[in-house]
Amino acid sequence: xxxxxxxxxxxxxxxxxxxxxxxxxxxxxxSFFPIPPDxxxxxxxxxxxxxxYRLAFxxxxxxxxxxxxxxxxxxxxxxxxxxxxxxxxxxGNLNSFHAIIQEWGAWAILIKGxxxxxxxxxxxxxxxxxxxxxxxxxxCVITRGARFYLTAFLLKxxxxxxxELIEKRINLVAIVGVAVIVLGIVAVKFMH
Length: 192
Description:
Blueprint: H1 2-12, H2 18-29, H3 38-47, H4 52-76, H5 78-87, H6 94-104, H7 106-114, H8 119-128, H9 133-158, H10 160-191
């Protein structure tokens, strides 16, 4: 099921309306679409490196708006949110994610938003858990902006080698990013 969507997404990157499609995919991925916008961002940024940061901005804004939509689904339409998560096999992770949100709050969103964990799980579960909307919004801006601008920077700076790294080693890149954040949290806690 995912391979045809992945291939379709790649084809969209070469079309004249690619930025609009990129925005739509970034929005949808935050609430219900299975393919991350990075799949489209990478070839677009490689084709026109001078537009890499503009593309990251488009991804960030659309993803945050999509995140607010996902939050609304979880907050107002929890049954539909559960069906969306179940469709992609994530409903089993919901209880553990709720516990993480209750314990860690904003940190959970900041960490999960940088990892390969589908952002729709974060947004819908945050709505279901009724996390403070302002905190949710700020965390989404930070985490999604960091993800897309880092991707744009790597693609602009290192070109095709960065694309290979992102595609083949995304889990390693995400784990290193999460480790840095966790170490920062631990350092702050020990300072107090």
